[in-house]
Specification:
With 248 residues, this protein is an alpha/beta fold. The chain contains ten helices and eight strands. Helix content is 48%, strand content 14%. The chain has a five-stranded parallel β-sheet with strand order 2-3-1-4-8, sandwiched between helices. The protein binds adenosine monophosphate.
Length: 248
């Protein structure tokens, strides 16, 4: 079960407290990989098995989008415009949003950072922040997949408006077209999953985010995992690596 209390605090701000039992060994990982490789799905599996909370900066920006315009700061409005165009939000805005939510990093449940850091500058800021919180990163799971396959996966993705569960029109279709299997909510195509935005996102990823892999390799934290095959196959690979590295 997802840790709704911590997730809500991450999305909307506020105190990071939950009544769920804490895992004996909280995971502290960054998830890397181009949009569409299936990071989110792997994060869900990891969350279920190890209790760590998936913290996605993209989800924070999507949540902001549904807030009344008059409550948004100019930085937030700028962030939304960048997101709509498939561009990256400025480093300083993203970093301040994560810093505001530092309690979610130190919740004791562990975390799977998804979509952050996206640049080396953000990675440096995360390193400083984790140092202040006395948290050691276990590693960086870098999911790797062919570009053609990424485009195929992304353009077919559909997301539930209510519970955010994702489906795929070919690989993981809902039982009823356009309707979420879990909560009956309406499925939609994310603005940034449309072909025009996908192209920009992949290019942006190559330019800004791929150097991150190099950065984490130097830090001795990079763990590259093939994202080919079914989500279960990819998760088996991930579990095996966690067992080897952390003995869990
Ligand atoms: P995602 O769901 O991670 O693909 O993020 C969706 C969009 O949110 C991205 O295309 C960016 O516009 C913005 N975004 C999310 N995380 C970051 C980040 N760490 N740095 C800059 N922009 C981000």
């Amino acid at each position: 079960m997802a840790n709704e209390a911590i997730l809500n605090a991450w999305l909307y701000g506020g105190e990071c407290k939950s009544n769920l039992p804490k895992p004996a060994r909280p995971l502290h990982f960054v998830l890397l990989g181009a949009p569409g490789v299936g990071k989110g799905t792997q994060a869900e599996f990891l969350s279920k098995k190890y209790g760590a909370v998936q913290l996605s900066t993209g989800d924070v920006f999507r949540a902001i989008k549904n807030m009344p315009a008059e409550t948004l700061s100019p930085a937030m409005k700028e962030a939304m415009e960048a997101m709509k165009a498939g561009k990256l939000v400025s480093d300083d805005t993203v970093i301040s949003i994560v810093k505001e939510r530092r309690g979610c990093l130190a919740s004791g449940y562990g975390f799977l950072l998804d979509g952050f850091p996206r640049t080396v500058y953000q990675a440096e800021a995360l390193k400083t922040l984790l140092g202040e919180l006395n948290i050691k990163l276990d590693g960086v799971l870098n999911y790797a997949l062919d570009t053609e396959e990424v485009v195929k996966r992304l353009s077919g993705r559909r997301t539930c408006k209510q519970c955010k569960t994702t489906f795929h029109v070919i690989f993981n279709p809902p039982k009823v077209e356009g309707v979420c299997d879990k909560c009956g909510g309406e499925l939609f195509q994310r603005e940034d999953d449309r072909p025009e935005a996908i192209r920009v996102r992949l290019q942006t990823y190559e330019e800004s985010t791929a150097p991150l892999a190099k950065y984490y390799e130097k830090e001795g934290l990079l763990i590259t995992i093939s994202a080919e095959g079914s989500p279960e196959e990819v998760f088996n690979r991930t579990e095996k690596i966690l067992k080897e590295r952390l003995g869990i």
